[in-house]
Amino acid sequence: MTLPSRQDLLDAKTRIKNIVHKTPILTSTTFNEMVDAQVFFKCENFQRMGAYKMRGASHALSKLTPDQLSRGVVTHSSGNFAQAIALAAKIMGVKAKIVMPVNAPAVKVEAVKGYGADIVFSGPLPSDREQAVEEVISTSGMTFIHPSNDLQVILGNSTCAQELIEEVSGLDIIIAPVGGGGLLAGTALAAHWFSTHTAVWAAEPQNVDDAYRSLLSGKIETNDRTDTIADGLRTNLGDINFPIIKDLVGKVLVVSEEEIIAAMWWIWERMKIIIEPSSAVAVAAVIRYQEEMKGKRVGIIISGGNADVKALAK
Amino acid sequence: MTLPSRQDLLDAKTRIKNIVHKTPILTSTTFNEMVDAQVFFKCENFQRMGAYKMRGASHALSKLTPDQLSRGVVTHSSGNFAQAIALAAKIMGVKAKIVMPVNAPAVKVEAVKGYGADIVFSGPLPSDREQAVEEVISTSGMTFIHPSNDLQVILGNSTCAQELIEEVSGLDIIIAPVGGGGLLAGTALAAHWFSTHTAVWAAEPQNVDDAYRSLLSGKIETNDRTDTIADGLRTNLGDINFPIIKDLVGKVLVVSEEEIIAAMWWIWERMKIIIEPSSAVAVAAVIRYQEEMKGKRVGIIISGGNADVKALAK
């Protein structure tokens, strides 16, 4: 495949720079001592609406034609991408419909409504969701934006690692969590064009290790189970992001549920920041595979902070 | 009374600059819209050992004579000052004994031990604690450092607001929580010398409103109750910090337990940072008294992040 160009990535950064926050990069002496490496946490939990998804959503919207913008956008998501599209659409004065399953948590539904998007409820199955999206498209002419398998979303996501690479020189490795693959593909592209000596590795829950198996088999694998606390990482790779990942990502590090939970609590209690379980997967990978990172400069993409603290603390 | 000089404050900053972190200042568009003011959060939850107490403790130690340093230091605290003295003493290679009540939470005792300090257990009453300190002093010749009523501790604490004032120009108001008074006195001194047009106000739980009553009566008042979630603010003012506070602090804003808890959760969930209940008192004051801050530039000292998340989320 032909990778997006260096200029494509730079353009994405310019297009969204007035919409997204440049997020801070934190370090922890205690964490560094624990893993014997220099670790840089790129904190997208401080991004608008609380996750990196704001980058991809706002970039995808910024690439629409005036005609498309006038008809609005539709996506399906019960998580961060729903809020990201809703907020980006609000900022740009565009109509948005979000297809959410009827069993989506009320708090997520309220958050999307709070940003002014319309909710379309669908049945709980992927086929129900797709049918609902089709109906919206055929009746309203809205443009569908996929949460992770969309090149403009991937380019938007690449701006996170672009910022990290600009601010921290000489990174040996960048670790990003992998679910649908949109963040990982964007991160890998950023390193490919702006820091060629930096390896990009993925982190994934062992219970939903489809990306791990996909890199081994060379084709997109699926999961038989979805039982992971990292609710943002239950989805599979797509035909647009997988070729990029296959080309540019060195390896996938898998971690257990216990390791994810321990890493999440460590960050909450010691670094005093709220990260969501999906982000803790990347932290857990650095802790578990520290032998491979000894003495290295390691960037971790902290993808978001939309954790249900009360539920997780039970 | 004669206030410490501008130079005293500058000297304190120089003395501890290699020991403490310069902490970040965060803002939140959503919070600003909610209270209709421009609010700057000075994040001492990211300070070493998780609280501003590191500043006062390390400054007090830095002022000791070689003879005093060789004999070591003692303090009484079951909270952040215990960890601060323990860590500062460890960094400076000084022996430290911390008097803690037998009923101190095990997690706090372990944290102090983790920094290498010796624990001396006392009975639960203030008189027990003072007796234990006296015994340590008479047997070991250690120097006692009070957590809040000590001029060198106050000068160390002043460096927090010094940093805030340097980085954020034109602040109309700075709000600091008040317990023992050491942070409030230091904050007031910093504004007095480096930003004379900035008012310094205190925030205090209604249930332990001794500082509120002390400013009204002009003498140090005490509490009959200690039932507040803000465990760092249960103590009374002292004869060294009260004259400074009386002279320089405009008013004390009191808030209810419900307001403290709501503010703490708002910051955890929306700003994605862990702040301890004592810090939430200052946030709650800005929310409750927003009419008085409308359109103003307001600094909030987020004093620390050593919250027991699991217990508080119950």
Please describe what this structure looks like.
Two copies of one chain form a homodimer. With 314 residues, the first copy, chain A, is α/β, with parallel strands linked by helices. Chain A folds into two domains: 6-51 and 150-312, Rossmann fold (3-Layer(aba) Sandwich), CATH 3.40.50.1100; 54-144, Rossmann fold (3-Layer(aba) Sandwich). Chain A is built from 14 helices and ten strands. The longest helix of chain A is centred in the middle third of the chain and has 17 residues, at 151-167. At the A-B interface, helix 12 of A face helix 12 of B.
Brief overview, please?
The structure is a homodimer of 314-residue chains. Chain A is α/β, with parallel strands linked by helices. Chain A has two domains: 6-51 and 150-312, Rossmann fold, CATH 3.40.50; 54-144, Rossmann fold (3-Layer(aba) Sandwich), CATH 3.40.50.1100.
Task: Give a quick set of tags describing it.
314 residues, Rossmann fold, alpha/beta, homodimer
Quaternary structure classification:
homodimer
Number of DSSP E strands of chain A = 10
- Give the % helix of chain A: 40-55%
CATH fold title of the largest domain in chain A: Rossmann fold
Largest sheet of chain A: 6 strands, mixed
Which CATH class of the largest domain in chain A applies here?
Alpha Beta
Unreliable segments of 5+ consecutive residues of chain A? none
Q: What is the molecular shape of chain A?
A: globular
Largest interface: A-B, 17 and 18 residues
Question: Mean pLDDT of chain A, nearest integer?
Answer: 96
Number of domains of chain A: 2
Question: How many angstroms separate the termini of chain A?
Answer: 47 Å
- Provide the spatial order of strands within the biggest beta sheet of chain A: 1-2-10-7-8-9
User: What is the string of SSEs of chain A from the N terminus onward?
Assistant: HEHEHHEHEHEHEHEHEHHEHHEH
Number of helices of chain A: 14
From the alpha carbons, calculate the radius of gyration of chain A and give it in angstroms: 18 Å
CATH architecture of the largest domain in chain A: 3-Layer(aba) Sandwich
- Note the beta-strand portion of chain A: 15-25%
Structural class of chain A: alpha/beta
